[in-house]
Amino acid sequence: MDEYKTAPDESIFLDLSPDEASLLFYIFGVAVSQSLTIDELNLLGNGLFEMAQVMLVIAAQRTLLNDAMSTQQEERNSQAKEEKSAQEWMTEIKKLQDQIESLQKQIDELRI
């Protein structure tokens, strides 16, 4: 599953401040409501509210999935670092063992 984008590449909303976005939706709401009856306003308002709830659930689920994928990736990276570190230690231990054997041979030769 691909990671969900937290922001689109290009969006009109990236160019708006929070105040400007609020004003945009306020003006849009007032403009649309001028030509509607009370029943139509209730229906449209409830429909938009329902749509907003669905969008919030989708955004929350995408955030949850992104966080879970990020955590998994961090765990994989951590495990890879630990494995690399363990391999480095094993290599270092092998070098030290070889040095000890070499020194032991030199000691044995000097005793003779």
Strand content bin: under 5%
Number of strands: 0
Report the structural category: mainly alpha
Sheet with the most strands?
none
Averaged pLDDT, please?
87
Helix content: over 70%
Radius of gyration, rounded?
Answer: 33 Å
Poorly predicted regions are none
Continuous helix count? 2
Helix-strand pattern, N to C? HH
The general outline is rod-shaped
Keywords: Coiled coil
Coiled coil: 79-106
Secondary-structure map:
Elements: H1 18-33, H2 38-111
Keywords:
112 residues, mainly alpha, 2 helices, 80% helix
What does this entry look like structurally?
The protein is mostly helical and 112 residues long. The chain has helices at 18-33, 38-111. The longest helix is centred in the middle third of the chain and has 74 residues, at 38-111. The protein is 80% helix and 0% strand. The chain has 2 helices and no strands. The chain has a domain at 18-82. The protein is rod-shaped and about 110 Å long. Keywords: Coiled coil. Residues 79-106 form a coiled coil.
Task: Give a quick summary of the entry.
This protein has 112 residues and is an all-alpha fold.
